Structures are given as structure tokens and as C-alpha cells.
Amino acid sequence: MTVAGSRDELALVDLLDRLLAGGVVLTGDVTISLAGVDLVQISLRALISSVSTLAEP
Amino acid sequence: MSDEVLYLYAVTDSDIEDVEVIEMRAVDGAPVHVIAEASVAAVVSAVDADRFSESAVRHSMEDLHWLETIARAHNAVVSDLARRRPVAPVRLATMFANIENVRSLLRVRAEDFVAALDRIRGRCEWAVKGFAVDTEPLPATAGPTEALGPGRSYLQRRRAERDGRDRRSQEAVAEAEAVHDRLVQLTLASRRYPPQDRRLSGQRDEMVLNAAYLLPEGVETEIRRVVDEYHGGRLRLELTGPWAPYSFSTLESDQ
Q: Helices (DSSP H) in B87-217: which residue ranges?
């Protein structure tokens, strides 16, 4: 079995859907808390501004 | 040398050995290693405590280069593991102050992790994205509008274009829902994500379906056939996978 991700062409945006909104969420005393930080909002806002800047001729 | 904290990639069965992760490239350059406790094991690597503090990560998330580097490194470890064994991937940027905190997590949540691993054991994730095609404006139709004068004619033409585009977009959405319903029948579980922003996907077509499906390993033929053989009017489909089961790794008590 091969798993998507070993190849470079894997789209970052597909990856971020899963890494920022999927996966087990662990919060509480034992973690360094990023709970309450909306990673999706922060990173997508940053991505969109970067991509928009790059795309301008 | 500055302090280190532990970055957690995934949780897996406790039979994992260090040799399975020794070659892996970690997010911050340190070796990947295994912490087994109770009936499960955590896959971790040391990262710099300053660069991976809460405030630093919050700030770094806005740096595209940093985010891409971390995301790809995280996925490289997780997908490498997923090729060999059941894994419950953990959300990006989950850190622990020390080994004892990781052990404590594993002890306290062992049953939840075992249940999560059992849900994805022998299964993998495939993704289907659907795009509305042919939603560009139709060529304007000449005719009765000419009598209205250039200004009103233009506005009417623009309105007709927009209405046509909306209609075709709605048709694509309806087709996408029908495809999704069919895929739900063929698979064990599904999860929808919001449509991706066109500026990020690089697609000029509007995304109308962004979904993940869980299915037994090696039986993606049917889902592939649905995608490959789809000839809808307004919908174009894309299949990616297999993915590590990111979309289906949840702990019971979080649901």
C-alpha cells in the first residue's frame, strides 16, 4: 500500500484540510496548549495573502 | 543548548519498535522516537522549546514557508507509519513539555486511543473533490435587448450571464450531492470539508465537493470507478489517496 504524502506533488491545501481540521485533538494540562487557537483561520488567512501576493503580475 | 519539548505525530499500537521510525525525518531535525505506555505508543520528536512555544507557533502559522515545512514533515512521518501499521494521526502542532506528560496522556486516554485505532485498523482514507465546470459566462445573446439602448442592454446581458452561471453552479452542487450520497453507500464513513478557496487550490473552477471517505485497504476500485466513469454535465471529480486516516481519527470522548 502506498500512502499519499510521500510525493512532493501532494497539494499543500489538501494536506492542510486534514492537518488543521482532522487528526486527534489533544488538550488539557499535559499539552502545550494551542487550544482555542483557530489554526485554520490563522493559517488560511496567511496562505491566501501569500498566494495572492505571488499571483499578482 | 536550549530546552526542548516533544512534538507528537501520532499514536499507534504498543508493538511499534524504534527501528521503524529511526530513518524518519522529523519536523525540527531531531530523530523520531517511540514512547510506549499502557497499551499504546506515541511517535514523537524533540523540537526547540522557543521555536515551538505557544506564542511562537501561533506567530509561525502565518508564515507560509514555515507552515508548509511543518505540514509536509508531519505528514511524511504519519504517512510513512500508516503504510506499515494502524495510526491515529494527531492534529498539527501538538506539543508536550516532557516525556512524563506524554506517558501520562497515554495512560489516561489508552482506552480511547485503542478504540480510535480499532476504528481505522485495516482501513484508509480516500478523498474526492468536485468542481463545477463550464460556469464561465455564456456568450451574450443579441436580440430584444438592443431596443433598450447600450446601457440597459449591457446590464441586462450581465444579469443574464450571472443568472446562467448561478444556475450551472447549482446544477453542479446537486450533482456533487448525488455523487457524495453514492460514495457514502460504498464506504464505511465520510467527512465533509469546506470547499477550498480557489486562490489556494489554484483551480479556476468553483469547488462544490471536498470530502473524505474511509474504506478497507485495497478496495478502492469501486470509489475509483465512480470517479473515473463519472460523466456529469456540470461536475468534474478528482480522487486522491490513500491518505493516512486523518479525517477519521477522533477520540470517542471528543465526539
A: 99-120, 150-186, 198-201
CA proximity to B34, closest of B3, B50, B11, B56: B11
Nearest-CA neighbor of A21 among A48, A45, A44?
A44
Which residues, numbered 4 to 43 in chain A, qualify as contacts with chain B under a Cβ-Cβ cut-off of 8 Å? 4-6, 10-26, 30-34, 37, 39, 42-43
Contact B79 A3 (CB under 8 A): yes
- Alpha carbon B79 to its chain centroid, in Å, reads 13
- Nearest-by-Cβ selection for B57 from A1, A12, A34: A34
Instruction: For residue A38, give the chain B residue with the closest CA.
Output: B58
Q: What is the pLDDT of residue B176?
A: 96
- Which stretches in chain B have pLDDT values below 50? 255
Measured distance CA(A4)–CA(B220) in Å, rounded: 14
d(CA B239, CA B224): 7
Burial B2-19 (b: 16+ CB within 10 A, else e): eebbbbbbbbbbbebeee
**Would you say the pTM of this structure is higher than 0.95?**
no
Q: What is the pLDDT of residue B182?
A: 96
Distances from the Cα of A27 to the Cαs of A19, A32, B121, B184, in angstroms? 16, 8, 24, 31
Residue with cell 512521518: B77
Residue A48: which of B52, B53, B197 has the nearest Cβ? B197
Residue B127 class from Cβ within 10 Å (0-12 exposed, 13-18 middle, 19+ buried)? buried
Predicted confidence at residue B138, as pLDDT, reads 53
Q: What is the per-residue pLDDT for A7?
A: 42
